[in-house]
Amino acid sequence: MPAVSKGDGMRGLAVFISDIRNCKSKEAEIKRINKELANIRSKFKGDKALDGYSKKKYVCKLLFIFLLGHDIDFGHMEAVNLLSSNKYTEKQIGYLFISVLVNSNSELIRLINNAIKNDLSSRNPTFMCLALHCIANVGSREMAEAFAGEIPRILVAGDTMDSVKQSAALCLLRLYKASPDLVLMGEWTSRVVHLLNDQHMGVVTAAISLITCLSSKNPDEFKTCVSLAVSRLSRIVSSASTDLQDYTYYFVPAPWLSCKLLRLLQCYPPPEDGAVKGRLVECLETILNKAQEPPKSKKVQHSNAKNAILFEAISLIIHYDSEPNLLVRACNQLGQFLQHRETNLRYLALESMCTLASSEFSHEAVKTHIETVINALKTERDVSVRQRAADLLYAMCDRSNAKQIVAEMLSYLETADYSIREEMVLKVAILAEKYAVDYSWYVDTILNLIRIAGDYVSEEVWYRVIQIVINRDDVQGYAAKTVFEALQAPACHENMVKVGGYILGEFGNLIAGDPRSSPLVQFNLLHSKFHLCSVPTRALLLSAYIKFINLFPETKATIQEVLRSDSQIRNSDVELQQRAVEYLKLSSIASTDVLATVLEEMPPFPERESSILAKLKKKKGPGAVSVELEDGKERGELNGGGDRGGDAAIAASNASTPSPSADLLGLRSAAPVSGAAPSAGSLLVDVFSEAGPAASSAGVNDDGFLSALHAPEASDSPLVEGPGDSDSAPPSAASEDPAPPLPESDELLNKFVCKNNGVLFENQLLQIGIKSEYRQNLGRMYLFYGNKTSVQFVSFSTTVSCPGELQSQLNVQTKTVEPLVEGGAQVQQVINIECLTDFIDAPLLNIKFRYGGALQNISLKLPVTINKFFQPTEMAAADFFQRWKQLSQPQQEAQKIFKASHGMDTEVLKAKLLGLGTALLENVDPNPENYVCAGVIQTKAQQVGCLLRLEPNAQAQMYRLTLRSSKDTVSQRVCDLLAEQF
Amino acid sequence: MIGGLFIYNHKGEVLISRVYRDDIGRNAVDAFRVNVIHARQQVRSPVTNIARTSFFHVKRSNIWLAAVTKQNVNAAMVFEFLYKMCDVMAAYFGKVSEENIKNNFVLIYELLDEILDFGYPQNSETGALKTFITQQGIKGQTKEEQSQITSQVTGQIGWRREGIKYRRNELFLDVLESVNLLMSPQGQVLSAHVSGRVVMKSYLSGMPECKFGMNDKIVIDKAGKGGVTDEVGKSTSGKQSIAIDDCTFNQCVRLSKFDSERSISFIPPDGEYELMRYRTTKDIILPFRVIPLVREVGRTKLEVKVVIKSNFKPSLLAQKIEVRIPTPLNTSGVQVICMKGKAKYKASENAIVWKIKRMAGMKESQISAEIELLPTNDKKKWARPPISMNFEVPFAPSGLKVRYLKVFESKLNYSDHDVVKWVRYIGRSGIYETRC
């Protein structure tokens, strides 16, 4: 680059700039600029030719004015003229102006491109460089279009100067980043790769940036660069510091180039060629060795350069993750840095160690540094380093050191920075769950967590505790006790109250024996926190109170008193008021049996991915958490809240779940209660779902509610129906063979056509409850066998069989149940059902057990009917009629005319049709009295579309039911099933 | 009420800072500097709210005066006070400049103590102030003098002390008007109004009672109705009387009398003061008419011809005439030819400035200019800002006439005839623009 001679300084420009700097006010500056602009305009007028110097000077002034923030709308032409000058300084200013001010749609772009082309084809290296810099600085699509073909040629041409090659490589990189589709390497690829062999280190450095970028996009084309890079690296690494004269930086040979080479290698897997690999390993070892050598200089630049190479090398080692020896050495090296004076080094070391910890080879080695890391967490001054330390602790945690790490993190949490608290809380929660050996420790840890960092504990954390406590019988008592103790603190966090309310409500009975935690004491303790809590928490507490009434009848009076108080029953919050009213009624009207059914203990939650982990992932972005929960094998859908269908009774704290109280009053009766909606399957919801419509028609008053409970059309509700049925049930035959199905089993079956949950069977001994959910062609059914007596059932066994051709139509899998059912206890059985094709019969459930020596043998039909696999389909009227007509063949239609056996209440009908699983289509049938439904039956083999039309005749108390589907058997079966329902 | 008062120089350095109330902290000084004086975007509103604190500022040349308050004050009052403050300072040490403020800061603090008490404006009449805030050394005041000052300042007529004696009783009356105009290129008046002031300088002995009369339409009409003939009244009101839209008076004017009789009577302060301010919008005499003619010749040339016509009695002479013709932003050269005065292209202001020293009434003069333009990349069209004009004429463009100014002093032995009275009319241009 030619040196700028002293005489080249532009005096006029200097004077102008100093004038502007001396301006006292903004106005003065604007005046000065206006004056200068007028001067330049008069000079650029065109009638007199300007020499190159003045042109350069004025263009410079314009540039300066532009950079001060004023608009420049002239002078572009003069700047373009400067490009064709032969003087370096003039050309340079021209290019500078254009790089800063050019706008791509300008008509000048053609002229500019022309000038650039001329310079590129000139043999003058400085001019070529200027042109390349300009292209790179503008970097627009137009530039790429014009020159993307030209630059690779310059880059690989044999006679191009080294400095031009460097510029060309970087220019090409810029264009590639801006518009990758225009830069096609194609035939240049191999020659570009061979630039790695170039004599000139500068060219190699520039080229390697380009290659790294290109190869990250299409690694295969550039595969050959690996061996070249390795050999280049080994030459640099093994060279003495004096070999590469110009490229030695504070005794480190070519540090930038080394780093870039190492980074390029990280784009590829370890080289397969043994020789290359050996050489690379040798290089890496040399780099690690060099790190151990005493520094050749005390200057910080020396150690920076050395460490930069080292860290790149370590990331390459981690990337390969195949050399245990190197990994351990790298880990040890990082360990040394952990206590280094430099904050940056400590940060980098912790960060690299995080990735090392996930490698199986170095995990143990990382673990040896636990003390140092914990120390770093506690004493480090820089918050970002502390954050890394926390990350590393999380990454290095395993079963052996979980207790220590969790304890340390917990104790750190008290003083932790606010910015990282929430993340820390999530991490502690996950580690505690993942490595919990005994669950009492887990409960302790989480309760501690809530105590220490209550505000930062997200919903997921306490959802998870409750899930785990409910699923683990062994920890329930302990949890209740601990929660009770924790609640006794004078001030405890709201999250603690939530956990406390839930757990005591569920398992308070486990600690009720102790006079110090008698039911009343428990209740008073919870209620003392009530007034300090937010509305969702209060709602949860109210649910806890009603559970208390169930658990401890002696508290009933007290709790009813509380519910009856004006602050509850007339609360301004609708949710609270409704809960108070309903719970009060429930507690005073329903018998203890009903109460026990409604407020039954929560069934275990299905195993699923911890919602906390999902939350942490969301927080850090995908891929940041490499560790999976060991016990979370089944990766369910990411359900943000930890709620599930079963806890709808408490799920008011989560707005996504429909509130149970809303259903109690039938306000939601129009919403689909389809089999496909699993979360709506709350026991409480279901119990009232049929009573609901009546209640809503009778109004929201207490009487309506009452009449709903005892209304005749609700006779099949298990609430009232259960005991009645048990009287009529005959004692079952005592034989070893499966008994024939009970005579009323078909009737029982019909009861479940339009609903999924309820009591299937009940006699003096046994009660069988059902909860089921269906999705697509799959279903899951929970059977609850309750021993109603005080004597245990022995050799209790159940079998599910599919008689006849049902075997090929339905796939039913059961899990065996425990042979012993204690008196008053309940066992659960899960049945998985897969619908292969459409079917008519129902599978048989046979139950055998010995009660007091007598063999009991009961056979029932499992309420699995074809309509359970309905998927509702919404469609418009025109759509519906078109399909209706398409299914006009006589065998596709099934019709029945029958007399109404129940009332003809609209709401009840609607609820039943929805319960069938189809979508109820409004405004389709011209007669508003009629009902029209559509759905698709999902089987494994096929999907059967199904259209339904129900025409009630109120005068005659008759119905006409028409069904059309693509399969005749289906039409007939659904028609038969449905005819029994109305 | 005003919580504090700050004076800054153009750099934002604080020259005077006086805080009257505790709710204004020291940081208020910096807040104004940072958010107004040093703001990136020039602050055009005179009222700025920063962190629930209101700043009212006026600028005099390079000096910023800012009043600060946290309360909901009457903004008009605050500005009135700030202007008064400027007047008082000007009366004491001449031009309000950084230099003068620095040299007189003791005096300014003394003044501030007097004219603003706990944020409430007090007597700001220069004449009265000068009796007890003097720039001379402290001279021994007798008890009598002190009590006299006290009684005067706290008395009914706080603006005039007793016992003033002049050998020659003189009275100067200036009617100062500024005329504002916006005119379309075709000569249609888009908006016009005159804001005027009556400024007096009185050197009268004793406690005289003055009565001022002018050709106010209401007064004339009333007089006409009660007068001898209707015809006379009509002719006077038709030609001579003016309609005043609104007016304000000096504190010395008896407002009750003005309300009941529409007569302006007062005991004048000693020295210079502003008797009244008024505004008129009807029947304004426009002293000059500007006729612009702009022709674009191609993309690179612009021809401008501007004719000005003076529209008043030929015997009167207008002075300090200046016509400012804006030029496009891409002007590269200007040639000007004018018959009278001097014209010059001022690049720093992007305008041609044409100056004429004197011009008699009913004359016209013209300028023609050729403006060369530089072709630009921008397709933006030139916005054509209006041509503005400055001048000074020796009559009142509103048509206001002083009918009488009577002086009565019962105790001393001089009568109305003995007083020498001087009346002067000056009409100046305010914003006097013609679109082109």
From TrEMBL, chain A:
Primary localization: membrane
Clathrin adaptor alpha/beta/gamma-adaptin appendage Ig-like subdomain domain boundaries: 750-863
GO molecular function, one term: clathrin adaptor activity
Biological process terms in GO annotation: clathrin-dependent endocytosis; intracellular protein transport
Binding site for a 1,2-diacyl-sn-glycero-3-phospho-(1D-myo-inositol-3,4,5-trisphosphate): R11, G12, K43, Y53, K57, Y58, V59, C60, K61
Membrane topology: Peripheral membrane protein
InterPro entries for this protein: Adaptor_Complx_Large_Subunit (IPR050840), AP2_complex_asu (IPR017104), ARM-like (IPR011989), ARM-type_fold (IPR016024), Clathrin/coatomer_adapt-like_N (IPR002553), Clathrin_a-adaptin_app_sub_C (IPR003164), Clathrin_a/b/g-adaptin_app_Ig (IPR008152), Clathrin_app_Ig-like_sf (IPR013041)
Domain of life: Eukaryota
PANTHER family hit by this protein: ADAPTIN, ALPHA/GAMMA/EPSILON
Similarity section: Belongs to the adaptor complexes large subunit family.
Function: Component of the adaptor protein complex 2 (AP-2). Adaptor protein complexes function in protein transport via transport vesicles in different membrane traffic pathways. Adaptor protein complexes are vesicle coat components and appear to be involved in cargo selection and vesicle formation. AP-2 is involved in clathrin-dependent endocytosis in which cargo proteins are incorporated into vesicles surrounded by clathrin (clathrin-coated vesicles, CCVs) which are destined for fusion with the early endosome.
Subunit and partners: Adaptor protein complex 2 (AP-2) is a heterotetramer composed of two large adaptins (alpha-type subunit AP2A1 or AP2A2 and beta-type subunit AP2B1), a medium adaptin (mu-type subunit AP2M1) and a small adaptin (sigma-type subunit AP2S1).
Protein name: AP-2 complex subunit alpha
Organism: Salmo salar
From TrEMBL, chain B:
Localisation per UniProt entry: Cell membrane; Membrane, Coated pit
MHD domain mapped to chain residues: 168-435
Key words of the record: Cell membrane, Coated pit, Endocytosis, Lipid-binding, Membrane, Protein transport, Transport
InterPro entries from the UniProt entry: Adaptor_comp_med_subunit, AP2_Mu_C_sf, AP2_Mu_N, AP_mu_sigma_su, Clathrin_mu, Clathrin_mu_CS, Longin-like_dom_sf, MHD
Main location: membrane
Pfam families noted in UniProt: Adap_comp_sub, Clat_adaptor_s
Membrane topology category: Peripheral membrane protein
Molecular function as annotated in GO: lipid binding
Domain of life from the UniProt record: Eukaryota
GO terms, biological process: endocytosis; intracellular protein transport
GO CC annotations on file: clathrin adaptor complex; clathrin-coated pit; plasma membrane
Binding site for a 1,2-diacyl-sn-glycero-3-phospho-(1D-myo-inositol-3,4,5-trisphosphate): K342, K344, K346, K355, K357
Record family assignment: Belongs to the adaptor complexes medium subunit family.
Protein name in the entry: MHD domain-containing protein
Organism of this sequence: Oncorhynchus mykiss
